[in-house]
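Hello, quick one for you while I still have it in my head. A protein chain has come my way and I'm curious about its shape. I'm sending you its amino acid sequence along with the backbone structure tokens. I'd be grateful if you could look everything over and explain what you see. Here's the protein in full, and shout if anything looks odd to you:
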Amino acid sequence: MPEGDTVWQAARRLDDALAGKVLTRSDLRVPRFATADLTGRVVLDVTARGKHLLTRFEGGLTLHSHLRMDGSWKVYGNGQRWSGGPGHQIRAILGNTDRTAVGYRLPVLELLRTADEQRAVGHLGPDLLGPDWDPDQALANILQDPARELGEALLDQRNLAGIGNVYKSELCFLLGVTPWLPAGALPADRAEKLPALAKKLLEANRDRPIRSTTGRRGQDLFVYGRAPRPCLRCRTSIRVADQGDGSRERPTYWCPTCQPGPAPATTRRRRTD
């Protein structure tokens, strides 16, 4: 599941493959930009902004992409077989004389002027892995609506950028509160720890092939994806339920013993991950 750490990794792979090199192949397979040709332009850099990717080209153009749940960018050497999915799922191809980057199932793909990047990412809060990280502002954003459920506030990229369902569940476990706790009810000592803890988790995992919040080999996560297995701390069965307005399925995991507090009336019966 792409979150801030995996998107940061994708940006690094793309930057290593494309930055400083002239494009010899360009193919954007979305109707609005199907005729756009970036061939002959030098890729300046590829950077992550929260869960967004910005690929910048000479001449003041930026390719903005977002992976959401299923999207991915794969990098292949010349002559290497592409294996990211069937051809009809390819949305973008950017290649040079050495390597080719292929974007699969990208739900967001747009070409815009670099000067207009704020139109795509200007709404984002402080980036947990970016140079604009501001822990005080991130916490203030989370607490600005004290009645809002903490889990929902953490997922709101306008508050802070980079957290998804996995880190939402893991952060709430490490803070010892349920994701359904009103943000304003978060004890002051835990609220103070939240920004630094979130940053620590994402920074620790941005260079890892397998995400881990526990430091235990083979038991990588405390709660996410573990229902109904026992909690690693207290052995209570982990629970899972959807959180949100129902417009999207957002499985949320928690331990009812280690995380006392508000919880939904119904939980899922099946394992979700």
User: Anything to note?
Assistant: DSSP finds six helices and ten strands in the chain. The longest helix spans residues 188-205. The first strand starts at residue 25 and ends at 28. The CA atoms of residues 28 and 247 lie 30 Å apart.
